[in-house]
Design a protein that fits this description.
alpha/beta; Aspartate Aminotransferase, domain 2; Aspartate Aminotransferase, domain 1; 2 domains
Length: about 375
């Protein structure tokens, strides 16, 4: 039986092989493995692409979040970490790293519920929480889930009203936009991931921080190399969080394909949307105005309690699928006693039981795409 994966990185490598092999060969020749020329070249090209003054290569998307938050603590409070009384509002429907980064920066995550249509954090819930708890809140950390922008107009308006900073988690949305602005350029900073499965991914871990703020850029650059401009005389509690030259070179080689591949993802999503229209019990991703969805995941929703049955049915027919994410953050042990929960988070708790991500390999053959479509339709016809 032919297997259809969520993503086929081998296929993508073959498509970009000449560029990637050349990039690796150049690294082998110059042997500058730490802060090699590819790191700065990648930083400069992505800064121009996103439309910000600075991009800083980081060892992972998780560390990009942590270093951004740590830099903001130093900038805003003049101290290494936030206090436990400092609250940062975010979503419980995301990968662990988002909430974990807040804890590692010393602050307390406040989980507010999501919009049931976009699955992104609900600005109305943010405002509700702030109406009675504003004194301790210092920031909003929106996650552009599955490649779709949060409502950044509402979030930035709320942030301005309450004097909060906004750090964007753009791990799943490289190339995505809100009203013509690239994500990662709207808040005070953005945190990106180059994990292999991302829209722009390397051959291992990697990440990036984007910002227009000179101080944040300076602090991030110190923190990523043990906390100082001089590694033998440091200023802050730092990390070894550099982006490897080799990963920078690979991401740089793949960067030239990002718009093409995002467009391919969008076309696959469009076909899915058309083919799944009218299936009772199945909801396709929302198509919202003012944004450019880059479909890191194509995620459907089953409101008939048969999500797990569909996943099993697909598996039996050789089709991969995945639940992103099966457990909301506020129900994880690590956040027990370390977070605040606003209201009942019922949308998040229901959504984790109903979502399923389908294959969206940019180079997917039409035959495989239609096999997925026919298999999903067959499940519902039965």
């Amino acid at each position: 039986m032919r297997q259809i994966p969520l993503l086929d990185l081998k296929l993508e490598y073959e498509y970009m092989k000449e560029d990637i092999d050349s990039a690796i060969k150049t690294c082998l020749e110059h042997q500058k493995w730490i802060f090699g020329p590819e790191v700065k070249e990648l930083e400069d090209k992505i800064a121009e692409y996103i439309g910000v003054k600075h991009c800083i290569g980081i060892s992972s998307g998780t560390e990009a979040l942590v270093l951004s938050l740590r830099s903001l603590a130093i900038k805003l409070k003049g101290q290494e970490f936030f206090d436990k009384t400092d609250e940062i509002i975010t979503t419980p429907f995301t990968f662990t790293a988002t909430g974990d980064a807040i804890l590692r920066a010393g602050a307390r995550p406040v989980f507010v519920d999501i919009d049931p249509v976009t699955y992104n954090i609900d600005p109305n819930k943010i405002r509700e929480y702030l109406s009675s708890h504003a004194s301790r809140v210092i920031a909003i950390l929106p996650v552009h889930l599955y490649g779709q922008s949060c409502n950044m107009d509402d979030i930035m308006e709320i942030a301005k009203e309450y004097n909060l900073f906004v750090l964007e988690d753009v791990a799943q949305a490289f190339g995505g936009m809100w009203k013509g602005r690239k994500l990662g350029s709207v808040g005070i900073a953005g945190a990106f991931s180059f994990f292999p499965s991302k829209n722009l991914g390397g051959f291992g871990d990697g990440g990036m921080v984007s910002t227009d703020d000179e101080e944040i850029e300076g602090f991030v650059r110190m923190l990523l190399k043990h906390g100082g401009k001089d590694k033998y005389n440091v200023d802050h509690i730092g990390y070894n969080a550099r982006l490897d030259t080799l990963q920078a070179a690979i991401v740089l080689a793949k960067f030239k394909y990002i718009d093409e591949f995002n467009e391919r993802r969008s076309k696959i999503a469009e076909i899915y949307n058309i083919e799944f229209e009218g299936i009772d019990g199945l909801s396709v991703p929302a198509s919202m105005k003012n944004l450019h969805h880059v479909y890191h995941q194509y995620t459907v929703r089953l409101n008939n309690g048969k999500r797990d049955e569909l996943q099993t049915f697909l598996r039996e027919h050789g089709i991969a699928s995945m639940v992103y994410y099966p457990v909301p953050l506020h129900q994880m042990k690590v956040f027990d006693g370390r977070c605040k929960i606003f209201d009942n988070l019922k949308q998040s708790e229901q959504t984790v039981k109903e979502v399923l991500s389908l294959p969206i390999e940019p180079l997917m053959e039409e035959e495989d795409l239609m096999t997925v479509v026919k298999t999903v339709r067959k499940f519902f016809s039965n």
